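Practice problem: predict the structure.
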Amino acid sequence: MFRRFGLFLAQQPTDPTGALLQYGALGVLTLLAVIAVRVMYLRMVQQYDRERERADRLEAELRELNTTIRGDYVGTIGNATRAISEATDAVSNALAAVRRDGRR
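Answer:
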């Protein structure tokens, strides 16, 4: 019995494709399934790489927008704040002058 098993092992091909094809239709289906899994895996890896590149690009774009906002708009907001403060002071002074003139 062990002698037959030894002969069986000696007859096994070393190429996995040949071993699968030796089993006929089952081997062909298994080979096709392995190929399909490999193709799906490669597509998934490509999609992952594309998404990572997209995320890096969008992150750089966001960084650039934040820099623009900090540089350009912060100065504009500071000027607008000063103008509003001066307008508030002018309105307060005018209101105080009207009140003073009204009391006389």
